[in-house]
Design a protein that fits this description.
By secondary structure, the protein is an alpha+beta fold. The chain is built from ten helices and 17 strands. β5 and β6 form a beta hairpin. The radius of gyration is 21 Å and the shape is elongated. The chain starts with a strand and ends in a 6-residue tail after the last strand. About 40% of the residues are buried.
């Protein structure tokens, strides 16, 4: 028998412990990460008990149309599973989810999968259940660029030339806590090029890095006292995911980002994957060719971040 319970603050310790011992969970699913933006999302996270044993959780929220999302504040994150889950059990979990959604008047579920590069053990039972129990439709697919650090593809000549230039000009890379300096560079770049602000404010990224000091780290490329570029690394068990990588005009000229990535891929060479994140917009319909060309120049190749729409109660996505 499977029982579905909606998450409440009293279950925080149980939730977090399950994430720590799951086969496809990362620190992004810990409540201290998810709840930093609780004011923006109506949390509707779910916990599944199989014969009184917590066997799965699903970070989720609902929107103004009562659509259930596997959480909009996270890059990825559908059903988080344990080593004990079987394919049949996951199918039964999805049937329970469907019945629950129907009873709650939820018309659709928007489901973001956890890419396999984050899995500690094979964990694609949910993909089979999406097909079998919901006949789910793939409605968005972002392509990320990832390096297999065990068998890396060599950098292209342009990237090697820029790295050599950086090293010859005295660019060095170090871990730092100076998020304020990095956010000044990034905020200026984003405003000038796109007219937008960073997804995380300076206060938010500082809060999160303080809560997860072993998982969120800032690296800066310098020449003397001058900060040229920086990147925020999200460290999970099997993957280093870099984001917010930006350089000043002087940093772009000097190859500082190349020095930054050379340092990081060497430092974390013992982990299987180094992920640059997606180069797509509009649910994957638009591919930014210049952005993905840069990432592929470092030897990265494609990993998909998929989103499915699940129909509830006879609706069609």
């Amino acid at each position: 028998m499977i029982e579905l319970v909606r998450y409440g603050i009293g279950r925080k310790a149980e939730w977090d412990a399950f994430v720590d011992n799951s086969k496809n969970g990362t620190f992004l699913f810990k409540r201290d990460y998810m709840d930093y933006h609780a004011d923006r999302f109506a949390d509707h996270s779910l916990m599944f008990y199989c014969d009184n044993r917590l066997c799965a959780i699903m970070p989720a929220n609902t929107d103004a149309e009562n659509v259930l999302h596997s959480h909009q504040g996270l890059t990825y994150g559908g059903l988080i599973l344990s080593d004990r889950n079987t394919a049949d059990e996951v199918c039964r979990i999805f049937r329970t989810l469907k019945d629950y959604a129907h009873a709650q008047g939820i018309p659709y579920i928007i489901y973001k999968c956890v890419p396999h590069i984050y899995h500690r053990q094979p964990s694609e039972e949910d993909l089979y259940a999406l097909f079998r129990e919901f006949d789910a439709r793939l409605t968005a697919r972002g392509i990320s660029s990832t390096i297999n650090l065990a068998e890396p593809i060599p950098w292209i000549r342009l990237r090697k030339r820029c790295l050599r230039k950086a090293l010859e000009s005295g660019v060095t890379v170090e871990e730092s806590s100076d998020y304020e300096a990095m956010w000044r560079i990034m905020t200026r770049n984003l405003k000038e090029k796109y007219g937008v602000a960073p997804v995380h404010s300076l206060a938010e990224i500082t809060l999160l890095s303080n809560r997860f000091p072993n998982n969120i780290k800032l690296y800066l490329a310098r020449r003397g006292d001058e900060i040229l570029a920086g990147s925020v690394a999200y460290l999970t068990g099997r993957c280093v995911h870099v984001q917010y990588t930006h350089a000043s005009p002087q940093g772009k000229e000097s190859g500082a980002i190349d020095a930054l990535y050379a340092h990081l891929t060497d430092k974390y060479a013992s982990r299987p994957y180094f992920d640059f994140g997606i180069s797509t917009e509009q649910g994957g319909r638009y591919l930014n060719p210049n952005l993905i060309f840069q990432k592929e120049g470092f030897g990265a190749r494609g990993i998909c971040y998929d989103v499915y729409t699940l129909a509830v109660g006879g609706n069609r996505p």
